[in-house]
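re: ur question from yesterday

yeah so i grabbed the chain u mentioned. its 738 aa long if i counted rite. heres the sequnce exactly as i have it in my notes:
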Amino acid sequence: MIAEVETHEILETLKNFFGFDGFKGNQEKIIKSLLAGKDTFVIMPTGGGKSLCYQLPAILSEGTAIVVSPLIALMKNQVDAIRGFSNENGIAHFLNSSLNKSDIMQVKKDVLSGKTKLLYIAPETLTKEDNITFFKEFKISFFAIDEAHCISEWGHDFRPEYRRLRPIIDAVGGVPVMALTATATPKVQQDIQKNLGMLAANLYKSSFNRDNLYYDVRAKHNVNKEIIKYVKQNAGKSGIIYCLSRKKVEEISEALKVNGIKAAPYHAGLDAKERAKTQDMFLMEELNVIVATIAFGMGIDKPDVRFVIHHDIPKSLEGYYQETGRAGRDGGEGKCVTFYSYDDIIKLEKFMKDKPVAEQEIGKQMLSETASFAETSSCRRKFLLHYFGEEFDEVKCNAMCDNCRHPKQKFEAMDDIALALECVQEIKEKHKIKDVINVLTGNLTATAKTYKHNKIETWGKGIEDDKDDKYWQAVLRQTIVNGFLSKDIENYGLLRLTDKGRLFLKKPYSVKFTLDHDYNSTEKDGSDDDITMNGKGNGAASDEVLFAMLKDLVKKTAKAKGLPPYVIFQEPSLEEMAIQYPITMDEMVKISGVGTGKAAKYGKPFIDLIKKYVEDNDIERPVDMVIKSVVNKSGLKVYIIQNIDRRIGLKEMARSKNLTIPNLLTEIETIVESGTKVNINYYIDDIMDEEKQDEIMEYFKESESDSVEAALKELGENDYTEEEIRVMRIKFLSDYGN
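ran it thru and got these structure tokens back, copy pasting raw so excuse formatting
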């Protein structure tokens, strides 16, 4: 037993030291278990109050509690929080590589004097020989292993140093151990208990459900622009944006800043001082948004993070759960938006190719679960909680995920479930999802040949009525989530029938499923968060009446000037005008494909028309939704314009910038289409005669389209090259459009 503590004393310390009137969930039971000297294993979601479970017993107990924590930033945050409750700075310390010699001496002095109740330490520091000697010099009340999932290869943040903790604890002396984690599947839970020698520990597992979080997965199209729009719609709110690469972190952070958002990057490539400063500014609300790799956020005690955005799908559902769990820790609004493309899964699989085979297998299974979560159209909360071994009725989701808020049509799945279960039974419960799908669709793979699957009853039975691989993937995923099948993680994800599945086979009953999302198609479900300030969604949500009026004006202007309409403004520019409602020259210049030259030449009548339309219809304009682009730091466009002015040959320019001529022409086309005038007559005169030039020019004057392919077809591919058509198109647009 650590300390003989009465309930009233525990409640008194809770009130007087921490300022709380009562406990949340299992906190009181957990604290009493530890104070009674029992090994205690705590699985509690982010925001559930894990820290208090070891902080309060440490204050009440004689000696110093050793808290093993994986991140320096996390330790500093926790130590500052404890010191904030006390007049004595020495009450809590951390010991890690960020301290100098005099800092370390002060820490040791306070610990040996008995002042320090909590000593936070990194696992790497704990295993150093001189520190083990030091730990034997004072009374340790207990060990608390925070972020305990780091001990498991099946956890999302495996740290080999965590595997060496038990021998160190034994060497220091027999004291109780508390392990804490916010994310643990049944497999990870078993791993933690086994590695820490805690199989007999008191286990306290809170529900993983965070009912205030809204889960939303979106197709990955124009993702940077979508993120900036989303953050602007949530102006002034705190948020975290996660990216997989440092480069992407820097890019998005820069784009947010250019658009007037208080944002900063956070990744391991920045020095420790800068990271600490960024973290403090975020906590002090001098910054609204942190753009980070997963290095940010572990244990960050900021209760009012209102949104967490994933630019890239995380490597595992544990990682996703923990990162989204940083939103709404105060019980208030917490929106979790993830941008998903299956290409990201393929990219992550490629990153694993140099790892040992066993590690690759684990990684691939984790990625497979993440892809399943993203693509499912059933309740995301139910899917997530099932992954953590918890049953959940989707009715209780209360439309707090995109799939429940915007449900897909359901279909009767009774016969399909029965067929899938029969198939799993026939192949003796020894195969994975993809093998079951191959049997049902009659796909003769090497595995199917080896095991003679083509000889069994269910072979090819699932291909009638256009049921393909994707269809059966949806059926099998939902069959697992609904408990008819289980996935044996320990054995490479083999599918097994559950008792519920066996009963269903004996007596089938009606079950409704939905088809998975196809994020590679043009499908776009509506979402409350897609609404811009004028009440219209993004994407194809332009004002159709205004768009038609703008098209008419383009035609009139073009007719008056004797030019094709596309020379004035192209359709994508008109669509954007019908979303953004630009009513000043400054706003018109920001419309893509317009630019300063084109705005000055043609913009005024369009601005006048839009202004009158906005006033007549009392439209609230989404002025702040105009997304500014980050300036092209390479200066390539400036280089091209300057060199054209100096009449440098295109071949020479392309060579000096390591570009092909077609690529250089694409860059020049972009410059011209955005309204800048260029004069490449010197190059054109070099490569073709006047007659050819006149013929192509006449074609573009009369053509309704500026398509190079259409021009080649009309003028004759044997007589003209693509390069000739493209340079003349550049001349035409520049002379008449800009």
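noticed a couple things. The domain at 410-514 is CATH 1.10.10.10 (Arc Repressor Mutant, subunit A). also The chain is about 50% helix and 10% strand.
anyway ttyl
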